[in-house]
Each structure stands twice: as C-alpha cells, then as structure tokens.
Amino acid sequence: MSTSTAARPEEPAEQVLDVRDLSVTFRTESGTVSAVDHVDLSLARGEIVGVVGESGCGKSVTAMSLGGLLPGSARVTGSARLHGTELVGASEPVLRKVRGRELAYIFQEPMSSLNPVLSVGRQIAEVLQVHEGLSRKQARARAVELLALVGIPSPATRVDTYPHQLSGGMRQRVMIAMAVACGPQVLVADEPTTALDVTVQAGILEVLRDLRDRLGTSILIITHDLGVIADIADRVVVMYAGRVVERAPVHELFARPRHQYTAGLLAASPTPGRHAGTDRLQEIPGLVPVLSTQPDACTFADRCHAADDLCRGSAPPLEPQGGGGTSAAGHVAACWHPSTETRTLAATNQEPAR
Amino acid sequence: MSVVEATPVTVAAPEPGRGVRLVRRLLHNPLAMTSLVVLLVAVVVAVASPWLAPYSPEQTDFSHTFSPPGTPGHLLGTDDLGRDVLSRLMLGARASLEVALLAMATAMVVAVPLGLAAGYFRRWDAVISRFTDLLLAFPFLILAVGLAAIRGASLGNAAIAIGIAQVPSVIRVVRSDTLHLKSLDFVAASIADGAGDLWVLGRHVLPNATSVILVQATVALPAAILGEAVLSFLGLGIQPPSPSLGTMLATAQQFAARAPWAAVLPGVVIMVLALAFNVFGDALRDALDPRGSRR
Amino acid sequence: MARYLITRAGQSLLTLVLATVVVFLGMRALPGDPALALAGEDRSPAGLAAVRHEYGLDQSLPAQFLHFVTHALHGDLGTSVRTGLPVSSMLGAALPVTVELSVLAIVLATLVGVGAGVLAAVRRGRPAEWFANGLALVGLSVPHFWLGLLAILYLSVATGLFPASGFVSLFDDPLGNLHHIILPAVILGTGLAAVIMRQTRSSMLDSLSADYVRTAKAKGLRPGAVIGRHALRNSLIVVVTIVGLQLGGLISGAVVTEQIFGLPGFGKMTIDAVFQRDYPVIQAVVLITATAYIVINFLVDLLYSVIDPRIRVAGEA
Ligand SMILES: Nc1ncnc2c1ncn2[C@@H]1O[C@H](COP(=O)(O)OP(=O)(O)OP(=O)(O)O)[C@@H](O)[C@H]1O
Ligand code: SF4
Ligand SMILES: [Mg+2]
What we know:
The complex is a heterotrimer of chains A (354), B (295) and C (317). Chain A has 354 residues and is an alpha/beta fold. Chain A has a domain at 15-233: P-loop containing nucleotide triphosphate hydrolases (Rossmann fold), CATH 3.40.50.300. Chain A has twelve helices and twelve strands. In chain A, the strands form two sheets. An eight-stranded mixed sheet of chain A has the order 6-7-8-3-9-10-12-11, sandwiched between helices. In chain A, helix 3 (120-132) packs across helix 4 (136-149), helix 4 (136-149) packs across helix 6 (168-180) and helix 6 (168-180) packs parallel to helix 7 (198-215). In chain A, 52% of the residues are buried. Chain B is mainly α and 295 residues long. Chain B has one domain: Orthogonal Bundle (MetI-like fold), CATH 1.10.3720. Chain C is mostly helical. Chain C has 14 helices and no strands. Chain C has helices at 2-28, 34-39, 45-54, 61-73, 87-122, 127-141, 144-157, 174-208, 211-218, 223-245, 247-261, 266-275, 279-307, 309-312. In chain C, helix 10 (223-245) packs antiparallel against helix 13 (279-307). Classes of the chains: A alpha/beta (354), B mainly alpha (295), C mainly alpha (317). Chains in contact: A-B, A-C, B-C. The structure holds adenosine-5'-triphosphate, iron/sulfur cluster and magnesium ion (MG).
C-alpha cells in the first residue's frame, strides 16, 4: 500500500537506519490486533527525526520493534536495516550485539527505567563491559567521563549514587549517558522529556542536540509535544492509527501541513515553538480507531471534516506534496483531500534560534 | 506543553456485575471447578458422616485388628484396635473442616476490624502494627503449647491457636487494601462530604475489601487444616479417642510397618483437602486480579 | 539508614518487651497456684515456700516481673521441675540441634525455591512453569510431618539409606551428623521451599515486566545478566522478607520434625515439657522463641537494607 518505495526524493544519501514496510501485530486474548501497519522510516547520519501522533498510534511499538524489544506476543514483518544489518527477524545473539552498541534507547520514565538497586555508575559500566570488553575499573572511569559529557555536575561522586538519589532530569541524563556509552549510530528516544518539567526538558534536548553535533549520532525522537519537535527535529513523521500519514522537513510541516490530521493538530496549537510546555493542545474529537477494522479506508475518516466516500472507500497512499517550492522537497502525505492552508506562524521563524 | 493527547484518568466506583464476571471466570477454569467439586464432596461427606460412616469411629473390634484395605466390611481396613479406617477418615475430615472453619472465623473476626482500623485511622496504625509484630513473635505451635499449658488441649484451643496465628497476615492485607481504597476518589469524596468514619468504612471500604478478605479466608483454610493435623498429631489438639486425621497418623506411626495404609490414608485426605483449598484460592485470586491470570 | 535502623531497633525492642510481658502474664494465668505448678513433685509447705521465693512469687506483680526479667537477662531461666536441671543448660544442649536443622532447611528451601521460582517466571506458560507451580501447590498442601513418616517408612526403614531416628553431634562426627539431619531438613524445608518458590515467581514476573529490565535488554546484556543481576536482585528483596516472616512456621515445623525423627532438639524438649507440665521449661521455650523471632527479623531488616539501596542510602529525592 505504500507508494513511497518507488522514489524517495526526500532522503539524503547516507541512510543509517532504513525501515520499510514494517508491520507489527499482537496476539491477544481477543484475537490478533495490528499495532503498526506498513511503516516506512529513514534516518540519515546526524539527523534528528521526530515521530508524533496520538497515544496508542504505534510510536513506541515501532521503536521497540527495531531492537527486538517487543514481548513474545508480537509478530514483526517488513524490514529494518541498520547500516545494512537486517534487524527484523534477526537472531537474539545478533540483536544483542546491536543493542546498546549500534542502536540505543532512552525511555520515557527515567525513574522506573533505571534499576533501583544498582548504582548509576554500575549501570553505565555494564554496557561498556559487555560491548567493549572493558574491565570493571576501566568501565567505571569511562562512566565518570560519560556523566560529565551529559552535563552531570561532580560526576566522580555521582557515579556511585543510586537512581533514587537523583532528580528526574539527572536520571534522564544518566539514561542518556548509558545510551551513548558505546557511541551508537542510532539513538531512539521514546518521549525522553515527557516526565520532566519544562526547564529540565530544555536541558535534556540540549544534551541530545549536542550529542548529535559532536558524535554525529542519528536520533529518532518520539514525542507528544509539538514544541519538542519544533525545537529539535530536522524532519517529522506523523503517525496515525499505526500508519505514517505525513512526513516532511520540520519547517515545511509546520508551514504547510497537508494531511487533515496534521492540519488539525497544528490548528489546535497556534504557536508550537520554543516555549515547550506553554501551549496545550486541544484534543481532536473522536476516538482513535481500532486499526485492524479499516484496511480499505483512511483511518482518520471518522474524525475528519473533509472525509467523503473516496476516503471511506480506499486508503490514501503516501504521495509527494507540491506547492511549497523547494522547501516542499521530501514532503509526503497520505490524504485524498490535502489541506491547502499555509501557516505563516512563529514555528518557521525559529530556525536560527538554536 | 503541547500534548497531543492526554489520557483522561477517571476513578469510578467499582462497577456492578463484578460478581457475575468473577463467577464466569471461575466457571471457565477447570482447576477451580475440579477443586470446588472436591470440596463440595468433602463437605457433604463431612456433614453427613455420622450417618454415612459404616461404623461408629470409636467402635473397637479386637478380633479384626490391622485388616488391610479391601477386607469385606472394611473397605479401607482397620487399625490397631480394629476400628474402621473409612469411618474414622470421614469423621476425621469432619473434625478437620470444623477446626479449619473455627480457626478461619477466629482469624477474620479479630483481624478484619483491626486491619480496617489500621488502614483507615492513621493514629491506630502504629499501635496495631506493634500488636501484629507481637503476635508474629509467637509461632502457632508455641501459641498452641502455651494455650494447652494454660487451658488444656482441645479442639477449641487448637482452633484458637491456629486462628490467632493467622491474624497478622490478614491484618496486613486488609490494612493495605483499606489504605488503597481510602485513596480512591469515591471514598475520598465521601469523606470530604463529611460522612462519618464508621459509615464510610461500612458503606465503601468493607464492601470493596470483600474480595481481598475472601481470598484471605480461602488461604487461611488449608493452613488451618494442616495446623489441626499437626496439633492433633502431637496430642495438642483433638484428644483420642475422638477421630482426627492427626491423631490417626500419630497412632499409625507406631504401627506403620504392620499397617502402612493407616499411615498413608489420613495424610492423603489431609493433602487432598488442603490442596483443593489452595487450588481454589489461587483460582479465586486470579479471577479477582484485574490483570488476568497472573500469579 | 541510621534513622531507619534506630526506628527498627526501637520497634524490635518494644516488641521484645511486650512479648516478655505476655509470657510473664501467661505464666500467672496458669490455673491454680503457680508455685504448685513450678514446684513439681515437692509440694511440702517448705518446698512451696522455697519455690515462691526462688521465683519471687511472694512479691508484688511488678516486682515479680522485674525479678523474672533480671534473672532471664542473667541467663537464669529457672529449673526444670522434671529433670531438675537448669533450663538454660537444657536449652544449651537442645538449641544447636534445632538451629542446625533450621539453617539447613532454610538453605535448601531457598536454593530450591528461588531456583524453581525463577524458572517458572522465565518459562512462563510452558510445561516447566506448570510443573513448578504444581509442585509448589503440593508442597504447600502436604502435611510435612506425614511426609516425614513416609520418608521414615519407605526410605529409612525399608532401604536403610538413612537412619530413622537419633542424632550425633556435628563436632563428634560431621558426616554422621549430616547423615542424620539431611532427611529431616529436607522434610522441614518442603513447605518453606513452596512458599519461597511462589513468592519468587510472582515477584520475578513483576520484575521481568519492569521498565529497568527492558532497559537492561536494550543495553544488549545477556539473558543471564538481565535475569540475575537486574530482575532477580530486585525480587530477592521481597523474598528475603518472606523468609523472615516464615520463620514462625519454620519453628513450628522444626518442633514436629524433631518429634518424628527423634532429634534431641528444642522441639522435643517443648513437647515433653507440655506433657509433663514442666512450666519453667515452657516459659523459657516461649520466651526464647519470641526473642529469636524478633531478633532474626531485625537482622532480616538489616539484610534488607543491604540489598536495597533505597533504604541503605537515605535519599533526598
Ligand atoms: N504487548 C502488547 N499487546 C497487545 N497490544 C499492544 C501491546 N503493546 C502495545 N499494544 C498496542 O499497540 C498500539 C500502539 O501502542 P504504542 O505503545 O506503540 O503507542 P504509542 O504511540 O507509543 O502511545 P503513547 O503515546 O501512549 O506512548 C496500542 O493500541 C497498544 O494497545
Ligand atoms: S484522506 Fe480523507 S478522511 Fe483521510 S484525512 Fe484526507 S480528507 Fe480526511
Ligand atoms: Mg509510547
């Protein structure tokens, strides 16, 4: 159903991560449910790609499927290549070598994601010991350096503390230190700032951006927060009910949202900008559909004001969107009746304000 | 924070139909049903044993001692005094269930109010906790020894010792459930509306704690059955010649080489009863667990 | 940490004092004249007067209590009315047997219980789990003194592999000691193993689905490290507490097991005392058990705080 496989004008040459036709289904007591449906995604070296979408649209499942971190009830099909290594269906030993070394994760809840009974230094050192064969002592020394790298003050003493002794922001920095310990090519950050308050968020985003700039790490950042996207992402992928519905460079997306869902999101958020945390989005009315029930329709049709019989009768393909001049390059959306609105809002002006 | 969607959190009062779903879940669990059938049969046999038993359990027959199982007239054989093993098993099981129920009732009557109070009234919590610690320091056998020393060995004292020994764990569970319930919106709202403490406890907390209490009761029963057997075996419980599974084992121990069946059968009955309660208790807990069958 | 320990120590001490009061009052609640009970055979007026004086029964109740406590603290737990021996020396002979039996049972039960519990949680929904669950249910439901009887009947008497009863000291004959005590320890450990297995399994299921285990996996750790270092370590905190709470059950079990296997321990001493109305011994037994329970659970709390840094290191966060 995805047409974007033909030509992908939006993609620069060096793809670190290349996901195609990724689908995930879960076996549950009430039958098989589909969580991710033919998702295409790519990440260039040093690129930061944001994934947005409502709760339950499959962002986390997509992210987890890359590292083979889904529970046994999940079935993953399609392809996800990390520097040429196929991850979908790869054996555990292969995945183990990739995890933590080439593909690392940062999770949403930094308290529960860190082991409460191990010191943070030990938890960072672990990665280095397993992947780089460092001794415990060497690994510990590296852990101190890493803590400094992510901006933790007095790292030499913090290395021996336990997660409960640190603030939320500090814990998330520890998570980041752990994730980047082996210099992974791809960092997947699943809502890394959601649990944190606004000022702390900005600091964490700064660390991520800094890592990208210094180490050339590619980052896939999942978030609910359009402010975060505007702040940090180069490109945006919008997901809805398990599918990618729109993909565009960040300023293009904010200026000319094409898919009706994206347009609705942005309309409800007049100034998505640097002031992450100040603009609370209104919800779009209606329920997130159960994906598996709508194979031959636009999944958004029930909630879309522009929906017609075409939308309800066949699923729109992802197609290149014109109208934005050169900045439209790499803009695709899956909508039969794309929004034509052009927004001349703050988001586009914020580029230099890094 | 521009949040695309915030999941609304509502805490509703537990919906009706919980009971129906519970029963349906249990009906669909073959293990639960099997254990329930075993228990029902055991209860019927126990209640009817005075009429069902082929002999009086205390009737001796010195011309037929140590008859093996299968002897005509004595399906499961006879013991050292020629008493019918089947009859004694039936009445022994009856005594076991009696003690178990009595012990469970003792535990619940003492522990549930204390657990509710500890969870609901902050001031009482520390006092009740110390009381719990104190009780824990007296293991059930030691309690039974003490009670037997003070009041003599009997079925009733055995039941009290067993019941008291179960009080601490029931207090803990009821306390933590009460704490949880008290924090829920509908209870908090009721408290804020100025409802009296006893009213809130009786109207909101206790009814919603029933499932937890039910599970505790189910857990208490098999422990009590084992406890009775131990005490009677040691001579601290039911006194001979009254039939009890524990005393039967104590006698059989002396003649185990001559009449192994008399040493095996009472143990089997105890185990089947305790196992049935334990299996049913597990199934009940699973059925009540919103996360589905978990433990 | 210090505050936590001080609080716990204070609570334990309070419980200990209360337990002592309970034991003391329990003895006063004996039917009839305690002097009669304590005197045993010698019921002459002079003998009774001597007993009254020895136990301070001629004083006021608080003075009696003080008398009782100071004597107990000096290791004077009275004299057995049956054997005429000081209760403390009887305990000195009996306790090592019971302690050895219990420690061995706890070690065996912990090894088996934790192992089976981890296996059941990791192999969730497979035959290995059903098997382990079933075994644990049986272990919980079987009267272990009956298992002991069967073991004597079919292992000791029938095959002669193990002695049916009796005991030799660990120091005189270590191998013979093990030979005598291993079967009772296994029997005593069954129930505890079942409890530990069920607790380990359920807390492992919780830990295994915890976020930090996902993190550990995402780091590329081997399953052994994920399960052992990350999941099990957290589960053990719960398991340790359970073992502490099961101690009461274990003491009860030890009494019965010793009775069956004829081990000359604390349990046998207790049961004999009850039937011989040897009240000084009963009093001492109850007091010692309560003390042991309280002290050991305090030690468990210490251990708990060693395993769990959230307690060990007082956190600001
Ligand atoms: N283990 C599972 N078994 C069955 N269904 C699952 C499982 N995990 C996720 N799902 C389903 O997959 C869908 C996508 O979930 P996912 O966690 O990816 O959403 P999300 O976009 O990350 O949402 P959020 O923003 O709330 O994190 C959901 O409908 C969810 O119910
Ligand atoms: S395809 Fe139709 S229903 Fe779907 S978003 Fe576009 S206009 Fe709306
Ligand atoms: Mg998610």
